Amino acid sequence: MDSHQQIADWARTAVLSPLDVDCVVTLMLKIIDGKCRMADPEKAAMAVIYDVVRGRPGERLDPSLRALIAETRDGVPDEARRMAVYEQRLLAETQLSRPVMKAWKARLRAEGVLSP
């Protein structure tokens, strides 16, 4: 998809499960922690999707992660917040298996949200 608006429209209309929402939250934690290997345009696309779905319920992850993301995504977090993001990212990655995350990214590529 070429624009943030198209990505946001996709996120609003796509059928996303609570587990899909957890995948988005986990990817945002990885982006903030500097551990996401996606290209910058893909990271920007994930941020757009997150902004659309952040109020939706997840399945496994603590809803308080959304507050942590809000506090840390637009700046350089202090050491305590940086460590909190790191710890919560690790925890989120243990709660969602690699196959679940890979399937989520594959869906985004198949539906044209991310580049193939």
Can you tell me about this structure?
The chain has 116 residues and is an all-alpha fold. It has one domain (4-110). Helices cover 67% and strands 0% of the residues.
- SSE order in H/E notation? HHHHHH
What's the count of strands? 0
Main structural class:
mainly alpha
Give the mean pLDDT: 94
Number of domains: 1
Largest sheet: none
Topology:
Layout: H1 4-13, H2 18-33, H3 40-53, H4 65-72, H5 79-95, H6 98-110
Helix pairs in contact: 1-3, 2-3, 2-4, 2-5, 4-5
Briefly characterize the structure.
This protein is an all-alpha fold and 116 residues long. It has helices spanning 4-13, 18-33, 40-53, 65-72, 79-95, 98-110. The chain has one domain (4-110).
Keywords:
116 residues; mainly alpha; 6 helices; 0% strand
